[in-house]
Amino acid sequence: MSRRFTPKVVTANHLLDGDAIWLTADDRWTRNMCEAELIEDEAHADLRLLFAAGQKSVVVGAYLADAIAGPNGPEPTHFREDFRTKGPSNYAHGKQVELQ
Amino acid sequence: MYTYNDFDEAFVRTRVAQFADQVERRISGVLPEDEFRPLRLMNGLYLQLHAYMLRVAIPYGTLNSRQMRQLAHIAQTYDKGYGHFTTRQNIQYNWPKLKDVPQILSDLADVEMHALQTSGNTIRNVTADHFAGAAADEIEDPRPTAELLRQWSTDHPEFQFLPRKFKIAVSGAVHDRAVTLAHDIGVRIVRNDAGEVGYQIIVGGGLGRTPMVGKIIKDWLPKADLLPYVEAVVSVWNLLGRRDNKYKARIKITVFENGLEEFSRLVEDRFAVIRPTFSGVDQELLAEIWSHFATPAYLNAPIDGYLDRLNRDGAFRAWVDTNIAAHKVDSYAIVTVSTKKHGNTPGDVTDAQMRALADIGETYGHDELRISHEQNVILPHVHRSNLPAVYDALRQIDMATANVGLISDIIACPGMDYCALATARSIPVAQEIALRFEALKLEHEVGPLKIKISGCINACGHHHVGHIGILGLDRAGVENYQITLGGDGTEDTVIGEKTGPGFSYETITDAIERIVMTYLSLRTSAEETFLQAYRRVGMAPFKAALYEEAKAHAAE
Description:
The complex is a heterodimer of chains A (100) and B (556).
Chain A: E1 8-14, E2 20-23, E3 29-30, H1 42-53, E4 59-70, E5 73-76, H2 79-86, H3 95-98
Chain B: H1 6-28, H2 33-42, E1 45-47, E2 52-57, E3 62-63, H3 65-78, E4 82-85, E5 90-93, H4 101-110, E6 127-128, H5 143-153, E7 168-171, E8 185-191, E9 197-203, E10 215-221, H6 226-240, H7 251-258, H8 260-274, H9 281-290, H10 304-312, H11 314-323, E11 324-326, E12 332-337, E13 348-350, H12 351-364, E14 369-371, E15 377-383, H13 387-396, E16 411-412, H14 427-440, H15 443-446, E17 451-454, E18 468-475, E19 478-485, E20 497-498, E21 503-504, H16 508-522, H17 530-537, H18 540-555
Parallel strand pairs in B: 6-7, 7-8, 16-17, 17-18
Antiparallel strand pairs in B: 1-2, 2-5, 3-14, 4-5, 4-13, 8-9, 9-10, 11-12, 12-15, 14-15, 18-19, 19-20, 19-21
Helix pairs in contact in B: 1-2, 1-4, 3-12, 5-9, 6-8, 7-8, 10-11, 12-13, 14-16, 16-18
């Protein structure tokens, strides 16, 4: 039996600055994960990933990452994805200050 | 130090121009990522967790003040005002923008630096003893040999698509400060029974997933045979190496699977073929390289001021005690500048600090600086009369921390704060351990103790050879830290032994404290170091302190 599909977001790095970005439901790329499209259906996830992978001049390395619905939008479930929404822990650099 | 000739200059400039064109084509969409990726990696450009990362080689860890100032300029202009010195004598910039990278490489070329072969399945930056040319226990300066290997390996047509990356380290001293036994090839400058200087060649060492201590494949090699012999080793591995499985592709596995004897036989066969093709041009080149490594014009000055300061200033004396090493000239000292002020990120230096270090090196250090694999900055030639001035200048930039070789002088890889391969964070663990022992005021009481932390199994943080090694893993979606004890990265290299189950991010510092307290309680005297005590008593008391006491507390 195949594993049950868990909700996902499409994420990648921005080609020009390498920043972590997420795909929105209206085909934009956002630097704020809570604006991402939370995908509950596996077939739809595959389609969205194909769409992302086609954006070769915008993004690098698109993949599906596990997420859950939070009060303000999708939230990461794994610590690696959580760090991608914030930036490094040793300096106030990256999203933790840029998204303020 | 080595100065580029017309060939070097043209080669580096051509590569910069090629990469500028490749970046332009990538941004315009002509070049897809699949094709661009190997090209950017050839030029040291990675894509990490939050941004691109540019890894710049500091060949055998040597640089002058002009180069250090340029590294500062790059940190300030294209990055966030700092750079990270690594365990392979590179500097990494964590935040460059893709479009800026060609200009950064051009700025590097202006000071005879580059990012070539700092990534990919090639022969990487050749590293060397950071005390090279200065150490009291040195047989010969390893840098000319390292430079010869760098020139030979750069763009070597046979070795651009190796089974995996390949790392060479060179040591010229009695004490091995270059971790030669944990490299794919370790080159040690030694004397034979007749007193002639030659090379001992070590092969098949490495850390990572399957840590192995290198084996001596050639006890003594005449100097003129170095390049053909090393070429034979790499050539044999290039054909024999396991390209089917990247975890088994390093030369350590090839030597292990085939046996040293068989591997050595194949190398000798290959050497017999290659040796006659080396006409001696390499030796002429080496002689020319040697002319760039002239001994500095040492000063002759009274050291009364230094002795006076030692007598009246305890903080200065403490710094001299920990951060100064013996120089081959008595009136000189080797200064290790710690990047590890308690709570700082190991290896990180700001642009302002880099400029000040360049000034100090230029004024008091015969214009020489080094980067150590332990992520510190070295001033290899400082006359003792200048030590007070150097110390005062370092205090001005907050880099006079007297902790070299002590518990807070921690090696830590970037870990999951930056690295896309990492499975857990390293930097905040290092920060917390350093702050903990500073708060306990135990650092000097504990004495020599090397903690090394890696954020994944690839072991960039050399955790296997730490007296205390820490490996950060992802265990079911949670950061978990495995401890090893008894590792040693010197000429007596030993791979540390696992204590048992790992510890959480929240409890790893407590676990390290329990280990250190156990050591303090069982050492025979203050002279018995942690490593000596561990070798005497073994794992049991530490294991008990880590696990049984914890269990007892839980049961209360």
